[in-house]
Design brief:
By secondary structure, the chain is of the alpha/beta class.
Length: about 850
Amino acid sequence: MSDALATVRAEVDEIRSHARAHRQFSSTLSRYEGVLVRLDALEDEATARDVAAVRARVLVGIAACEGELGADREVVLAKLAAAAAMALRAGSAEMVALVHANLGLQLLRSGDHDGARVELGAALDGLVDEAEMLPVLINRSSLLLEIGAIDEAVADLRRCLEIARGLGDEQVIPMAEHNLGYAQFLQGDLPAALRAMDAAAAAAPPEHAGVGLMDKAAVLYEAGLLTDAETALRTAAGILAATGGARDLLDAELQQARCLVGLARFSEAEELAEQVRDRAQRAGHGVMALRAEVVGLDSRFGLVVAGDTDEGLLPLARAADLLCARAGDQPGAERVLIDARLLAAEAWARAGRFAESRDRLRALPSRSSLALGARVRCEVVSALCGFGTGSRRTGLAAVRRGYRLLAVQRQQLGAVEAVTAAAVHGIRLQGVDIDAALRSVSPDPLFDALERGRATFAGSGRVRPPDDEHAAELIVSARRLMERARLLRSDGATTDAELVRGVELHRDARRLQDRARQRTWHAGGSGGVPAPVTARGLRTDLRAAGSDRVVLNLAMSGDRLRAIRVDGTGARLVELGPLPPVLELARRVRADQQALANPLLPTPLRDVVHASVTATLQRLDVLLLGALDVAERDVFVAARDRLVSLPWASLPSRRGLSTVVNSWVARGNAEWTPGPGLSVAGSDLVHGVAEAQQVAAVWGSGARLLTGDDASCAAVAEAVEGVPVVHVAAHGTHEPENPMFSSLQLADGPLFAHELDGRDLSRSVVVLSACDVGSASIRHGGEPLGLTSVLLRMGARAVIAAVAPLRDDVAVRVMPALHEGLRDGLRPGAALARAVADEPEPVPLVCFGPLVL
């Protein structure tokens, strides 16, 4: 080989290495094309074979770049055919094997799994250089994972890791470890998959993050963390757009559209899917264009179902059937066929064409081979067909099968946030169950349908959080940043630089919080799935206990509000009317209570606001309870969405009466012995120390009092476990956009709800004398999430908290009286009712907890 040709060959090797490391396909393609021109000048009879070998290598590189940049499949294959001719001319077995390797990758990406497997196998058979084997093993493992041959894929990945570690290839090692994480995902171990993927991402070059985030998003989607999945895909799309990975960019955007469908953002999903379809068609990616069409149809289907109308269902069903016919036996279209058949099956069923729906279900592959969402959707369709043909037994069997699938998924997950997120996969299943129950003449089926769905995602994901020093460090760092930002505000920051610095501190703290919460997804669950309460069983238990308590289970269906009223004598369904007026009154109450919490409000204005909140609460009382016959009766309310955070105890008819609220009918243990507990005063609260001292005094010498520097986040988080009563007087913050970081302000900064995830509070009544911490953010799927809901999921016997701002002077009067009631043996709801009965203004405290008979 001449010196000039050797120089070109070295340059080609450098281009290949740079392309692997940085994935900058446009610039790499230009460099390869420049090399081709130079090769023309070097070729003569003596060097023809050597030039052909280098030319083959360059053509392979050009084909790879063009494939990444979205070139037509036939153009890429033509380049590889030319590379194969050059390799044969050169008599280079190594180059022939590399052509096989790249042809296998292109066939894999076009969906021709059989052809890709043959080509990749031929490549491995022909390669001698172990470094050249590494990308082939990575690509074949991806193929094997895609077709479900997980054990073979793992074997390839372990071989790849062994070679890469021996060669010290720091680029391939994280890729192989990432793919092993994806294998764990396919085997159903979502926490292990996320652990492996995050560890691999930490070691991988930033340029490779796009594809890794796409796979991670698939795991997050399966876990129900759709918002996080969509965010990851947006980030991946940005990275891929910058590096020129056009085909991967299309895939990322298509997955993003799928997430938007799951989040019920149907119009956005349809628009994005149409963009992907058009670009895929122009690039010759036929299967991807078909996949985008399915997502677009599913978006329109979601709009139809959300609109609660049959109009448009038949055209959608026929369009999905037509898509199946177009996909046919096209290589790589298996996923298109599954998704389109499921969509057609559900559309036919909702249109009342049950025979057609069942035909589409029968055409699907074995359900055990489907992803969770697809398996649950099969049960949704089966339930629609069962209920629709008059077989309630068949419909209920399908619903229960669906919930069993979701229960298995939910039991894998440890973090409270992940458990609540998993509910997103059950939205349509519960909708079908509830719709069928509403057609019954008895209220029992509706009560049971509500609780079947709610119980599946209730309770804690684990008994105790794993030790994670890194997560703890992230939380401490975030707390310090939040505290610095708070002190900056309290010092009266006014300059532009100070204001900008405050925003930066908050942003940096949020970034650390997000990293900490993602680490909680790495640990699996150890908590079980609670059994749902039935209306019949509840009546029996109420009678057996001799209780005259009334249980109200509220159901929102569309814009209508209904209540199932249950007591020991029976149950009845009551139509409460339209939901919007209730929510508007709740908004007004909150605004008035915020105004009343201002101690500087002038007396004349306070009188006006007081009159307004009193009148609004009266109207809310009539709308919610007026027709339910609960006068002079203790009440337990099960409510979801924005109804769970209403000021139930402040309604005029509830004065002096126990009112306990929860997001589902959880059953609690009646055996509780009140005793000395923990009383904490946070920082910067005018009457906080005095309140904590008075509460401790109620309980006597055995009570533990933490004030000043002793009331640190670590001390309180450790001290809350195992005590009968916990009282915290502190400033509180509910974070609507990040509810796991709702907090109580203690001596060294905010104590986050996140830090209490997994604590054992099964022996504790928790009283939070703080503003707003009874509020909750509602996850897509209906699950409330906030500081109070976290404490309840940790098993707290009750949590008494404010759903609006709580004025200091009110708290210091009410809280000692509340604890006197608890000390005297009253249950938490009754103790709260007695403590606030004589207050001149409504007190926004609510008792949250399970039903105790």
